Amino acid sequence: MSKANSTETRQREADHDGGSAHGAAGEQLSTAPREERPDTGAGVPAMSVIGWARWFWRQLTSMRVALILLFLLSLGAIPGSLIPQTSVDDMKVQAFKDQHTTLTPVYEKLQLFDVYSSVWFSAIYILLFVSLIGCIVPRTGQFVGQLRSRPPGAPKRLTRLPAYTTWRTDAEPEEVRGAALAVLRERRFRTHVVGDAVAAEKGYLREAGNLVFHIALIVMLVAFASGQLFKSEGGKLIVEGDGFSNTLTQYDDFKSGSLYDSDSLAPFSFVLDDFVGTYEKSGPQRGTPRTFEARVTYSEGADGAERKDVIKVNEPLVVDGTKIYLIAHGYAPVVTVRDGKGKVVSRSAVPLLPIDNNITSSGAIKVMDGYKDKNGEKTQLGFKAFFVPTFAGEGKGQMFSQFPGLDFPVLALSAYQGSLGVDSGLAQNVYQLDTSKMKEFKGEDGELLKKMMMPGEKLDLPDGAGSITFDGVEEWASFQISQQPGNGWALGGSVAAIAGLAGSLFIQRRRVWVRAVRGADGVTVVEMAGLGRSESARLPEELGELSAALVTTAPVAAEAPDTPEKPDTPDGPGTTDATTDATNEAGSRPVHPAEAPAEGAEK
Amino acid sequence: MNLAAATNESLANTSNVLIYSSMAVYTLAFFAHIAEWVLGSRSKVGRTAAALSAPGARASAATGGKPRAGGTAVLDRPEVITRSATGTRDVPDGPGAAGGTFKGDLWGRIAVSLTVVAFLVQAGGVATRALSVQRAPWANMYEFSITFSTVVVGSYLVLLALKKNVRWIGLPLVTTVLLDLGIAVTTLYTDSDQLVPALHSYWLWIHVSTAIICGAVFYLGAVGTVLYLFRDSYESKLASGGTPGKFAASVMERLPSASSLDKFSYRINAAVFPLWTFTIIAGAIWAGDAWGRYWGWDPKEVWSFITWVAYAAYLHARATAGWKGRKAAYLALVAFACWLFNYYGVNIFVSGLHSYAGV
Ligand code: HEM
């Protein structure tokens, strides 16, 4: 490596960072990759494949490209926040597609409905992470090398460093160096003597923190990726009193990552004992939900002990690594269907789906088997159901709920008979009634038989076809049950990232040199200087403290003779040029403490 | 029940009165700052120009720097001489808005005192609002805005109390705080109320409070960056022999040097970046509990991520040759714009899970 003197001017022009601006002294003050200017150094590579590959790799792992990739990453994330995303809200995407018929094909080509899993977005972050790995591996090696080696010796002209101080003392140079070693070691600097000066360095944790942070980013990415591949997620709607056990067949819907193995479902079961929802009773926010609680009894394993717990919106239940979230809730009117002879055919709580914030709900009640009509023939019954927890009152408005709580529940039914179409082999929506193969029951007016009922009321089917009774209302809650391995790693990575970042940003890595030489007049001249990364505010303060500590062993000598003394510093005359006049002046003559303020004061 | 509701109501009214009062006091502080700048313009500073144009003066600036850790105990503590890093101009900081004039300084002190009073009144307004709803005062944009500007001013006052050289930021800060409060009370106002269940979580305290602190401090950094850009053009103009306009010179001369402003913004941004990282992670954990997934690319999540990456890019730029200085400063401003958009833009223009709180 070239010496400080010859490189200094060039590096000055190159506007390098604070570390390398001071030549050898600043070398390896960080492990940041040396920047290669695009027009020099890296240049156009030799034409061989290996040459190209090397060139490409060097570019990819340079800070400049990392910077550009970071910028692209944030730019690339923007469209996903403005255009509806399939992964976030499928329905919105559909609505958007219906509205914008010309844009849609373009967007689809560009994968703008799936930005975060698109080829181009993935390309950016994969490149970034390759660059990151390509950056970390050599930097770690370098850092380990730095930990093994010792801080470099003092530069020739300490005056040029960002923080500098000097004084004359009657103590011997060896004595001063010995005291400096002691003072610096006490402050946990790594120190050693090189020639006539003590070299010291501190703050390696900055570099370590930086490496930890970047490695933690990789850990987090891997954790997220594996989480996506191995995760499983399913939904289940449960009416109060019913239960669920964690097997694939029990789910209403189920999604899993591509490497997921269904044997890994944790064995547990739970029963929804009670669901409690409360709502703001008055004021402008009337109807705004206040609490949602699902009280459950669960047991872990095939036959574990039963335990009680409460699942709230922000507080999922965790059983054996699987999380059970409360997602939605609604009402399930309890109805009893009887045939013409008064025999109970079915009695169940039928969950209905909310269609607005006040939980106006709709759905279907289906009687699949067990019902025989008055001729003794097997047939099926179907009812379209509409339910409001709080009815506006007879003749007031339409059948929309006024409040989400159960203040004035009313169930409206219309009745059909025939084939529900469940055997057709097509998947059927349990909340909709397919009336294509059904016949309406007619009321006395000859119209479709309809009735609005309060709990306890009964709808008689015509001609002794039976009846349906509205017995009461249960609530239901739906749960998302998900298992995502890798969360622990992601969390660990995050914590490490923050800790590393704090180390990297709050700790200063800096070097201090203490030179002690005998001046021409036989008095020892002590020079101290510090060098940190460019943003070192505390460096001068620290240098001040260090010098104050050192002065106790090497006290400031009595007033110097009037003639300016030239200390025995090896200051080459050839380096003097116009721009450094000022520094040379200060540097070639130890600035006496008493003089310095006069020259440097901010008056 | 009724009694409680009544006290809540009156607390909410008290809060509103306090917020309006703080606006009045901020307005006074604003005029005091103006007086400070106007009176300060009469000083004959001319130091920047001298430092940059006359070779002799420049030399003394180069070695002069700012003596630190010196003080009066000259004999037992050697003076430390500092130099700016290579490649930056060695220009001393300006004397501040008052320009070293007695009257200007007096008005500056009055402005700071008024700012302290306004801050206390405003903090009272935020506190009574919190008491009236019995929860953290940041569940909708109105509350977020009043809390945000309180924290901005609070951070500024903390820096002042730590004897940092930040008085130059007073005027831009008070101006924007007034603007923020104006928008808050006119267009964003929402009656105090309780939370929907999804917001019932201690993560609301953790996640949102750190988000507000980050935003407030990022804002200070952004103001510093903007002033850096102005001051830097001013210095380059002088260095290349140009003569800036009289008004510009009068204002710019009194600001700290470009390199001090640059360092100020860097330190501020770097100091909160880890906290911003924490905010995002805390948000992810909360989202994991509330919505059953840690990261779902909800618009708010996307923009937090964008902001984070933009600040990371800024920090990288500072460490990359050819990107330091102005280019890095532009990145810092882009990053702060992302933060702002995340707060105002996303709430207003984009709908997502986060928009429940009512604009
Ligand atoms: C995933 C994307 C990345 C993020 C979010 C990120 C973030 C950061 C942050 C916040 C810092 C500031 C810490 C400091 O100033 O000490 C930093 C520093 C640094 N990063 Fe990255 N980084 C990423 C990728 C990379 C890559 C790909 C490289 C290698 C080319 C790299 C090399 C560095 C270096 C050398 C520093 C230290 C600069 C210095 O010493 O001041 N980073 N990074």
Question: How is the secondary structure organized here?
Answer:
The complex is a heterodimer of chains A (603) and B (359).
Chain A: H1 4-14, H2 49-60, H3 63-77, H4 79-82, H5 90-99, H6 103-109, H7 119-148, E1 163-169, H8 173-186, E2 190-194, E3 197-202, H9 204-230, E4 232-239, E5 243-245, E6 253-256, E7 268-279, E8 289-300, E9 306-312, E10 317-319, E11 322-338, E12 344-349, E13 353-354, E14 361-367, E15 380-388, E16 410-418, E17 438-440, E18 450-453, E19 458-461, E20 466-483, H10 487-506, E21 510-518, E22 524-532, H11 538-551, H12 581-588, H13 596-600
Antiparallel strand pairs in A: 1-22, 2-3, 3-21, 4-6, 4-20, 5-7, 7-8, 8-9, 10-11, 11-12, 11-20, 13-14, 14-15, 15-16, 16-17, 16-18, 19-20, 21-22
Chain B: H1 2-40, H2 47-53, H3 55-64, E1 81-82, H4 102-133, H5 141-161, H6 170-186, H7 202-239, H8 246-253, H9 258-291, H10 299-318, H11 326-349
Helix pairs in contact in B: 1-4, 1-6, 2-3, 4-5, 5-6, 5-7, 7-9, 7-11, 9-10, 10-11
Protoporphyrin IX containing FE (HEM) sits between chains A (30, 32, 61, 63, 66, 70, 128, 131-132, 135, 210, 214, 217, 504-505) and B (312, 315-316, 319).
How would you describe this protein?
- The complex is a heterodimer of chains A (603) and B (359).
- With 603 residues, chain A is of the alpha+beta class.
- Chain A has 13 helices and 22 strands.
- Chain A has helices at 4-14, 49-60, 63-77, 79-82, 90-99, 103-109, 119-148, 173-186, 204-230, 487-506, 538-551, 581-588, 596-600; strands at residues 163-169, 190-194, 197-202, 232-239, 243-245, 253-256, 268-279, 289-300, 306-312, 317-319, 322-338, 344-349, 353-354, 361-367, 380-388, 410-418, 438-440, 450-453, 458-461, 466-483, 510-518, 524-532.
- In chain A, strands 4, 6, 10, 11, 12, 19 and 20 form a seven-stranded antiparallel sheet that branches. In chain A, strands 13, 14, 15, 16, 17 and 18 form a six-stranded antiparallel sheet that branches. In chain A, strands 1-22-21-3-2 form a five-stranded antiparallel sheet, covered by helices on one side.
- In chain A, strand 10 (317-319) and strand 11 (322-338) form a beta hairpin.
- Chain A is elongated and about 130 Å long.
- The model of chain A is unreliable at 1-21, 38-42 and 562-603 (pLDDT under 50).
- With 359 residues, chain B is mostly helical.
- Chain B is 70% helix and 1% strand.
- In chain B, helix 2 crosses helix 3.
- Chain B starts with a helix and ends in a 10-residue tail after the last helix.
- Chains A and B meet through helix 1, helix 3, helix 4, strand 1 and strand 8 of A and helix 3, strand 1, helix 9, helix 10 and helix 11 of B.
- Protoporphyrin IX containing FE sits between chains A (30, 32, 61, 63, 66, 70, 128, 131-132, 135, 210, 214, 217, 504-505) and B (312, 315-316, 319).
